[in-house]
What we know:
alpha/beta, 6-stranded mixed beta sheet
Amino acid sequence: MTSKTNRHHVVIIGAGFGGLFAAKKFKNENVQVTIVDRTNHHLFQPLLYQVATGILSEGEIAPSIRQILADQDNVRVVKGEVRNVDIAEQTVTADLGGKDAVLKYDSLILAAGAGQSYFGNEQFAEFAPGMKSVDDALEIRARVTGAFERAEITNDPVERERLLTFVVVGAGPTGVELAGQLAEMSHRTLRDEFREIDTEDTRILLIDGGSQVLAPFGKRLGRKAARRLEDLGVDIILNSLVTDVSKEGVRYKDMKTDEEFFVPSYAKIWSAGVAASPLGKHVAEQAGIEVDRAGRVPVNADLTLGDHHNIFIVGDMMSKDGLPGVAQVAMQGGQYAAKTILDEINNGTSHEGRVPFSYFDKGSMAIVSRFNAVVKMNKAEVSGFLGWVMWLVLHLLYMVGFRNRAVAAFSWGLNSVSRRRWQLVATRQQLHARNALRKLRELEDKEEIRSIEVRDNLRFGEGRDTRAVSD
């Protein structure tokens, strides 16, 4: 499948921050753009924890890609899972639910993002979902609300204590934000809603292998965030490595004493570590380039891949100058890649004449609780209420669509003055679907069956048969 016109064809893999901002940069330009994503939505990933804890609905943070780009006539959206990139032939092969589409490109922007890393312990995922997709957030919501519901009906005090113990692994921004919101849910939102349990008895543990929470924010802001979490009733366990996650709970080792501890827990959440999409390694190997431990691809000064000056890698997939895997890096990288391609098309700029990518650090933010956030902008450090206001403004600014901004602002305002949360609906399907699909894939392998519905849920690099099938 080639471009329908003779215009320069840009294929963008991934509709996250990097891919979407690149696509929007091509508006009204004489290029043909195809954006490929395995979902039909652009995910505002930094707000997933608010879906998981009932503040926002998934629709507010995951608008339709087609709706976002509807007014760009030169952009085509393809919903499919990329199965192969051939950099010699300049083609991308995508599986569209049992049917392959081969896209020929002139320029390629890889922005497939990253997934959760369990540091080689993938078995942990069965009992401790990550926080990388809408499905993850909805499953966590179901696990959290389900823990309280089960605790309400059990007569076993030991089991009740296990059900009311929540473990969050990883004290980065996602872990801190989750722990803070779980504490507010327990001690504020759900107070007086149950008859047999006191939700204020809930225990929340935040475990990390480092020596402080929010390490990238510096010691001062890390201490402020930790104190606020402790005021909310969160138990912070540092310098500790999780060694096992099971149905019954979490086992961790104190790295200073080598002593091991076991915490009985029903709801476990994993927010430690990320791994770049395996698509990066797939492409890098063809170019003779070795990826780093997290699967990120080393790129040139212009974000291109080795000698392939028409292949750009942006966002969480790239490794350059120690840049963090945050939304701003992806946004600026995507815009830079698009501008570089346009300079070549419109001005004849050669790859030797390209201006190197330069990242402008707009700071890092993490909300700890209602009215409290920490913000680091270069040397400036802000915390407390002012940090919370800055967090609100910036996140509203980067949300896509007027309606989503308006609904989010209203929801945040309502949450500030009321302890109620209106997005706590949870279903059994949300709770069990991820593991049920995994079991179904295992059954398919055993019975040598292939079905479109299951294959639609496969990710690149899972090593499954990708031949076209029909029901």
